[in-house]
């Protein structure tokens, strides 16, 4: 990872936990669903504009030691954020439809 220092990436103000983005309804089910959406947006806000995250990063941020139980809810949170136009889901660097993606995915800011 030579030449890439995440500490020097531009940073935006973090999204408060559980706060839906302006113009969007809260996630269905509230609670953990909202926390996962907020975690995805916060993780991306604290990375370079071209960076991606794994859904497991949001699951770990919300679930701590039981993060594995939150992997599918994290993927669903990513799908909701795609529907809202806030993020894109990629595989192998290409944007994919998150509702049909199988296997590992990455999440990035919408471009």
Topology:
Layout: H1 32-45, E1 52-53, H2 55-63, H3 71-83, E2 87-91, E3 94-95, E4 106-109
Antiparallel strand pairs: 1-4, 2-3, 2-4
Question: How does this structure look, described?
Answer:
The protein is of the alpha+beta class and 111 residues long. It is 32% helix and 12% strand. The protein has a four-stranded antiparallel sheet. Strand 2 and strand 3 form a beta hairpin. The longest helix is centred in the middle third of the chain and has 14 residues.
List keywords for this structure.
111 residues, alpha+beta, four-stranded antiparallel β-sheet, disordered N terminus
Indicate the radius of gyration in whole angstroms.
Answer: 13 Å
Task: Please state how the strands of the largest beta sheet are arranged side by side.
Answer: 1-4-2-3
Largest sheet: 4 strands, antiparallel
Strand proportion: 5-15%
- Tell me the distance between the termini: 24 Å
Name the poorly predicted regions: 1-24
Annotation field: number of helices: 3
How many strand elements?
4
- Assembly type: single chain
Mean pLDDT: 83
Order of helices and strands: HEHHEEE
Class from helix and strand fractions? alpha+beta
User: Helical percent range?
Assistant: 25-40%
Specify the overall morphology.
Answer: globular
């Amino acid at each position: 990872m030579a030449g890439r220092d995440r500490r020097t990436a531009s940073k935006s103000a973090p999204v408060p936990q559980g706060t839906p983005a302006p113009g969007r309804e809260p996630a269905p089910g509230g609670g953990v669903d909202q926390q996962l959406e907020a975690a995805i947006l916060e993780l991306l806000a604290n990375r370079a504009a071209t960076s991606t995250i794994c859904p497991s990063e949001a699951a770990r941020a919300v679930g701590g030691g039981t993060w594995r139980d939150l992997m599918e809810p994290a993927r669903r949170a990513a799908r909701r954020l795609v529907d809202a136009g806030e993020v894109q889901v990629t595989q192998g660097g290409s944007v994919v439809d998150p509702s049909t993606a199988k296997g590992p995915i990455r999440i990035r800011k919408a471009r």
